[in-house]
Amino acid sequence: MKIYTKTGDKGQTSLIGARADKDAPRIEAYGTIDEVNSFIGKAMTELDKSLFEDLLTDLEAIQNELFDCGGDLADVRPNPQFKMTEAPVEVLEQRIDDLMDEPPLLERFILPGGSPAAATLHIARTITRRAERQTVTLMKSGEEFPTVVQRYLNRLSDYLFAAARVVNSRNGVPDNEYVRSAKVFKGGGRAKKQGE
User: Alpha-carbon distance 62 to 131, whole Å?
Assistant: First the structure.
C-alpha cells in the first residue's frame, strides 16, 4: 500500500471540501494540534500504568478529542457536521480541579521538567498554547469553525500543566521552581495560571 499521493508536491493539501496552501492559517492550526497529539502519545509511553491509569485514560480520550478538533478545523464544507461539543471542555475542567488537589501547593512559577513524562507533558502544554493562538488568529480572520475548539485547547493546556505536576508528585520528583519568581499563586495555584 502506497501512502504517498504526490498531490501535495506543489505546496497544497486537501481540506474537507477544498484545497489550500500548506502554510495557510487553518492548516497551521490543525497541524499544530497533530503535533500536540504526538507529544501526548510520547508521554503515554513514559507513564507507568500501575501509577497513572487515570491519566492514561484521560490522555487516550484527549487524543481522540484532538483528532475531532483537527477534523473540525479541516472541514470547510457548507453546513458541516462538527464533532466537538462543550462536554469535553467540562470534563477537562473537572479533571483539572481533581488533579490540582493532589500535588503540593504551588506558590511560584515552575520550570518545565522533572520526570521524563512530566517534561513531555510540558512540551505538549506549550504546543497546545501555540495551537490556541493559531485558532485565535483564525477567529480574528473571520474564518468559520466551531469556537469550542479554542476553548478546548485553552482548558487542555491547563490540564497538561496539572497532569505534569501530578506525574512529578507521584514519582516523588519535586517541581523545580523558577528561582526569581515572586509568590504569584494563591489558594494552591488556582488564582493565576502559568503560561496563561
Answer: 15
Nearest to 33 by CA among 100, 129, 131, 105: 131
DSSP conformation class of 36: H
CA distance 164 to 66: 19
Could you tell me the residue ranges of all domains in the chain? Answer: 19-177
- SS3 call for 162: helix
At residue 51 the predicted structure's pLDDT band, cuts being 50, 70 and 90, is: very high
Q: What count of other Cβ atoms lies within 10 Å of the Cβ of residue 178?
A: 13
Cell numbers placing 101: 488537589
Determine the 3-state secondary structure of 190 from DSSP.
coil
**What confidence score (pLDDT) does residue 18 get?**
72
Q: What is the pLDDT of residues 130-162, one digit of tens each?
A: 999 999 999 998 878 889 999 999 999 999 999
The whole-model pTM stands at 0.89
Residue 149's closest CA among 60, 36, 24, 54?
A: 36
Looking at this protein, which amino acid is placed at residue 124? Answer: A
CATH of 19-177, one of 1.10.287.110, 3.40.50.720, 1.20.1200.10, 3.30.830.10: 1.20.1200.10
Q: Which long-range contacts (CB under 8 A, 24 or more apart) does 44-47 make?
A: 46/115, 46/116, 46/117, 46/120, 47/117, 47/167
